[in-house]
Specification:
With about 450 residues, this protein is mainly α. Helices cover about 70% and strands about 0% of the residues. It has 22 helices and two strands.
């Protein structure tokens, strides 16, 4: 895309910084102003686009493709269509596969193995969330595990624990996203710039992920009152209850059940290996999600419109508008302003600088997209003399960019999906309510990451 070179005054940068602060404040007060997240984000995106164009900050809108010049509205390339495609495709795929009875079957099997004990079920789903986040992506993991959780708790009559389960799982997606080099986009960006191999990334991040997972589940169980069944009478009652569950009840067609099972296994495999499959690696994981959703839609081709109605258009609109806003912020040099501040924070790159960078990266990634933030920080570190960049600085960015998503619901796509699932099941969770509930977890995660980076990396 042809980008016009331009100078941006400090006043313009500060203006857009104030707009970003305004967006965050409005999202925090969404219940007070009686507006959906998508409406708030769209209003700010339109304002940013107008001011950005009026001040001549934006690209020309021309893109060379296949030897031809294509004119696009400036906001089209701003959107991360990969994320939008993953959310759309994965949501459709999961919704259709659920009709096969597969998710109900898995949920009931896990529920029976747990003996109806809520705490055991939290451990099962928490560990599943981390594994899925590591091999798939955070959004897909949250969609799948969230669907299973709702089925299990409904069967047990424990819907009062659903908010605690879903919030804990949403936070664990960002923990699982730290496990491998390909678990999240910031990992790929920073890990590649730092020349960290896949095996090295796994071995260095795994100890933290294990400890953080255990601590998160324990804290979640404590805060939300998810306890083991207290006495033998309760355990016997729960065993009798789950003994009456039949995992085959939700299976209307055995053939479709096995088809859904095979497609789900293939979906997991292809998503996990997308970066190494010819053609697919160029099309991306968003294409994979849409491809599998399309295959499943063929099964219900005569009533496909029913599934379109179930798509969370509010969530998709919010993300699209948020991407547009952040893109304008980038052209207005707001992210550069953040980067300049971080250069001061890094200092000589010692322990203090590493800790300050991790905390700062976490704070900034909680209110803005962690992908451009990770790219900017990787560029800053990459431009520094090699002798001044310690491994701890690279890891500070990786941990900070990932864990910052646990501070607010807009800091991570998966936490926002978790909030959306809560709303779908009639659970109230505002922007401020999420921060209040998540802050003990987020502070614990950041404290653990600080200790780990400063002592072991």
């Amino acid at each position: 895309m042809a980008l016009m070179e331009h100078e941006v005054s400090t006043g313009v940068t500060l203006l857009f910084t104030a707009i970003l602060v305004g967006l965050i404040a409005c999202l925090a007060l969404e219940e007070k102003i009686h507006a959906k997240k998508s409406v708030i984000a769209v209003v700010f995106a339109l304002l940013c686009l107008f001011l950005g164009e009026a001040l001549e900050l934006m690209p020309t809108g021309e893109m060379s493709w296949g030897g031809h010049t294509v004119n696009l509205p400036v906001f089209i390339p701003s959107v991360d269509w990969g994320v939008i495609s993953i959310i759309l495709g994965a949501s459709l795929f999961v919704d259709i596969v659920s009709k096969s009875g597969l998710f109900t079957w898995i949920a009931i099997r896990l529920t029976r193995v747990s003996g109806g004990d809520p705490l055991k079920l939290l451990w099962f789903y928490g560990l599943m969330t981390v594994v899925f986040s590591a091999v798939l992506n955070n959004v897909t993991a949250m969609i799948i595990v969230g669907s299973l959780t709702a089925v299990s708790l409904d069967k047990l009559g424990r819907n009062d624990k659903m908010l605690g389960f879903l919030l804990t799982e949403g936070l664990l997606t960002n923990i699982g996203g730290l496990l491998t080099l390909i678990s999240s986009v910031p990992n790929i960006i920073v890990g590649t710039a730092a020349q960290i191999s896949f095996v090295s990334f796994l071995t260095q991040s795994a100890p933290f992920v294990v400890v953080a997972t255990v601590m998160t589940i324990l804290l979640g169980a404590r805060i939300f009152g998810i306890k083991k069944l207290g006495n033998e009478a309760e355990r016997a009652e729960a065993r009798d209850l789950v003994a009456g569950f039949d995992e085959n009840d939700g299976i209307e067609s055995r053939g479709f059940f096995w088809f859904g099972t095979i497609m789900t296994v293939l979906f997991v495999i292809v998503i996990a290996t997308a970066s190494s499959i010819p053609v697919i690696r160029d099309l991306g994981m968003g294409y994979v999600a849409l491809l599998f959703a399309g295959i499943m839609l063929v099964r219900f081709k005569h009533v496909a419109d029913r599934f379109y109605q179930a798509i969370d258009w509010d969530l998709l609109a919010f993300f699209a508008a948020l991407f547009v806003t952040i893109n304008v912020m980038e052209h207005a040099r707001v992210l550069d302003l953040i980067g300049d501040g971080l250069k001061v924070i890094i200092g000589d790159g010692g322990r203090v600088g590493q800790g300050s960078l991790l905390v700062s990266a976490a704070a900034f990634s909680s209110v803005t997209d962690n992908i451009p933030l990770a790219a900017m920080l990787a560029k800053i570190l990459g431009s520094m003399p090699a002798g001044e960049v310690s491994p701890g600085l690279w890891w500070a960015v990786i941990f900070g960019a990932n864990l910052g998503g646990n501070l607010t619901p807009i800091g991570s796509a998966s936490t926002l999906v978790a909030v959306t699932i809560m709303h779908k099941h009639g659970l109230t969770m505002t922007f401020g309510g999420f921060i209040k509930a998540a802050i003990p977890f987020a502070l614990m995660h950041i404290a653990l990451a600080l200790a780990y980076v400063l002592v072991f990396l």
